[in-house]
Amino acid sequence: MKTCIRFHRSILLGITVALLAAFLPLSMPSASAQNQAASAVPTSGYQAFLPSASAPCRQYCVGWAVGNAADGYGVILRTDDSGVTWKRQGRVGAIPNVDLNGVSAVDAQNAWAVGGKVILHTQNGGLTWEQQSLPGDLPKEFELFQVKALDRVTAFAVGNLGVLLKTSDGTRSRDGAMWTRMPTSPSLPPIQYSDVDALDATHAWAVGGVISGADPRGGLAIAFYDGVQWQPQLITHSTKDCNSFIGVSAVDRDTAWAVGGPNCPPFKTVNGGATWRAVGKPVAPGYYDTNRVVAVTRDRVWVTHDNGIYRTTNGGGDWVQTPAGCGGMNYCYAISAAGTKYAWASDLAAPPGKLFRWVGGNHWEAQTAPGTVSITLISFVGARR
Q: Would you list the DSSP string of 120-147?
């Protein structure tokens, strides 16, 4: 689960940076040499993307991406042209210096972002981000990993150490917090939550890994919120392969998908979670994770895998890789999608990270994220994430 995986991947990124520092020449190449090198980058299977003038955006225009802190504050990017160009928002002092793990876009003015012990909310398109108050009884070492907004005032947030939060109507609890802890069933074990998705106030799913001693990847975990409390839907106990969920996506009240790893097939429910079943084999072989999932319809689903971006159009009968330019140490990670022609993704890599845009319903275009930043997750207004 990326609540744990994100930690060890941050170590890998640090090692990668250290190795690069050790082996790269002390003097940097000239600008002309860099341009020549850039022109030599292979683009087989995807297209390197250079923003250019185009027709005005008409659909799925606004989106946000978040990532690790850089230059003294958390990374928040916004696009107004469906991912053709991205601009960073905020500044030092206005946004906390924290790695941001999750984001949820409501409309062109409203969005939430989470990371560390911080929840940020904008009501003006990101011109300003307000840090919202949290309950005072949260675990000392908790960290938030994802947020899902239903509308301008209602949202769920999840994190490690079993943290499940909700805000509604902007109300404050007795201790002044804008967010409150949610009730859970006594049968729900300790879980490291990494993702949450919701259809409405009485149908939400959160996924992660069962905490087994000091191991946060002690088994698959899916919890469901029915408007009263969170309760277990699927719990397994294994510290070997397929021991933690990382991503979840709900299509309707009956249909939802969950993915994880390592070496774990996608799971699906078609009866509201009464049963969850593995769908075939892992989307790709090897001891790797499937990181995030976005179900556009019951049968059309996108997933990001450590080594690629895949989609199915037949409910998981077949998974087809769509080459984008991420994989290897640059894990394919974030994914957002709408309909059959719109999708956006990013890698999880040492800065500078890359963003990807699905173009014409048939190929990915890649661009480097602005500034020295790495991207964690993406959310577009009107999209299935």
A: EEESSTTSS-EEPP--TTS-TT--EEEE
